[in-house]
Amino acid sequence: MEAQAQGLLETEALQGRDDDTVASADFSSMLSEEEREELKAELVQLEDEITTLRQVLSAKERHLVEIKQKLGMNLMNELKQNFSRSWYDVQTTTAYKKTHETLSHAGQKATAAFSNVGTAISKKFGDMRRK
């Protein structure tokens, strides 16, 4: 049963397997010369578009860095903001609220207990001095 279950779980990405299948298939014999030329032209166009998009993305990333520098935003400020946001998110969770409430209540009880012990010890020392 376990061997069957393991066989059902794919360890390789589907994208990679599809690419391998397509790469190993020979479609060239199924295409006419005209279709082949159209596909080559489309391939060149797609490669050009991808190159253009990479250039545009690179320019936008540079512009983003420039704007952040002008605004005084740096890595340390971003880390502080992310930490503050994460800490706020933690504090607003139900688990944190319950834990905080429980520990706060326990702290109050412990403070009261220490106060009572301190008072009792003071009374005992007072009694011992009087004797």
Describe the structure.
With 131 residues, the chain is mainly α. Helices cover 84% and strands 0% of the residues. The protein has 5 helices and no strands. The longest helix has 38 residues, at 33-70.
SSE topology string = HHHHH
Shape: elongated
User: How helix-rich are the residues, as a percent range?
Assistant: over 70%
Taking the sheet with the most strands, its summary is: none
> Structural class, judged by helices and strands?
mainly alpha
Tell me the number of structural domains: 2
Mean pLDDT: 83
Chain oligomer state: single chain
Q: Which band does the percent of strand residues land in?
A: under 5%
- Give the radius of gyration: 35 Å
Secondary structure: number of strands: 0
- Terminal CA distance reads 83 Å
Write out key terms for the chains shown.
single chain, about 130 residues, mainly alpha, 2 domains, 5 helices, Tumor protein D53 isoform X6, coiled coil, TPD52
Give the arrangement of secondary structure elements.
Layout: H1 2-8, H2 14-24, H3 33-70, H4 75-91, H5 94-130
GO biological process, one term: positive regulation of apoptotic signaling pathway
GO cellular component, one term: cytoplasm
Region (Disordered): 1-22
Condensed summary:
This protein has two domains: 28-74; 84-131. It has helices at residues 2-8, 14-24, 33-70, 75-91, 94-130.
